[in-house]
Amino acid sequence: MQNKQSVLLITEPNLPDTTKSLISKTLSSWKDKEFIANEWLPDVTSLSEEQVNKIHSVAYDYIIVAGNGLNQQVLPYIGTTPDKKWILLDNAIDRTETPVSATNLEWKRSGAEFMRSQWGEWVKQQQAMGKAIEWITASANPIPSEWAPSEEAEYISLSDAEGWYPQFQNQVKQHAPDWIAVYSPLEANVLQRMKNLQVPVMNMAATSVALKWDTVLNGILDQMKNKRWTPGIQNYTDQEITINKPQ
């Protein structure tokens, strides 16, 4: 028992009851069959001082954190706890690429090329049919260059520019596009206003991912049992996430 491992799992709120049940059963199995001591902090929106102190003071071997918001919160603590291996699990598409240098961190994400791989075929089909697309995105999330070449810059609107919507509205009237493609998330009231433009809207930004918890946890168990620690950013495989896309 000297080699008994210990795990802390921290998850964000709003997990489905079926997921909570699966996690609970899995952790019980780890404890009973694999002799892996574990503790679960569910429904965590932000880490309390007490929880941060626990992370620093308790001799966990692994700390698993699930949820984009939580993952950003715990980043400052990773470098200060070199005795612990951290596994961060994104549960949403992150359009920013945070650099990682810590050697005790493994971060599973959808990946920088995720949206391109999910929507490239649709865009290619529209281009092949000669369909014109009016694009909306944010300045920090540029449209892939093969989708909207620089000479078509007037077909791209930036939703974080001041007073952008009237200009966008005028462009739609001028260009008469076949599609409006939303590449970065917009507020619901803005999407509703777009319906008045009477142009079909493809809300790419509504693409979402959900963890296949059984597969992900089995993979982590395999890492722990067989000491297959691989730090750095890793893209999810198709077996680890469910992808939901608007039609």
Beta-strand residue fraction: 15-25%
Give me the number of helical elements.
7
The quaternary organization reads as single chain
Please give the order of strands in the largest beta sheet.
2-1-3-4-5-11
Q: Can you count the beta strands?
A: 12
Order of helices and strands: EHEHEHEEHEEHEHEEHEE
Mean pLDDT: 93
Description of the structure:
The protein contains seven helices and twelve strands. Helix 1 (17-33) runs parallel beside helix 7 (213-226). By secondary structure, the chain is an alpha/beta fold. Strands 2-1-3-4-5-11 form a six-stranded parallel beta sheet, with helices on both faces. A four-stranded parallel beta sheet has the order 7-6-8-9, covered by helices on one side. The relative contact order is 0.13.
Notable traits:
247 residues; four-stranded parallel beta sheet; 12 strands
In short:
The chain has helices at 17-33, 49-57, 68-78, 114-128, 164-175, 188-194, 213-226, and strands spanning 6-11, 37-41, 62-66, 85-89, 105-109, 133-137, 156-158, 179-182, 201-203, 208-211, 232-235, 241-244. With 247 residues, it is α/β, with parallel strands linked by helices. α1 packs parallel to α7 (213-226).
Architecture blueprint of SSEs:
Elements: E1 6-11, H1 17-33, E2 37-41, H2 49-57, E3 62-66, H3 68-78, E4 85-89, E5 105-109, H4 114-128, E6 133-137, E7 156-158, H5 164-175, E8 179-182, H6 188-194, E9 201-203, E10 208-211, H7 213-226, E11 232-235, E12 241-244
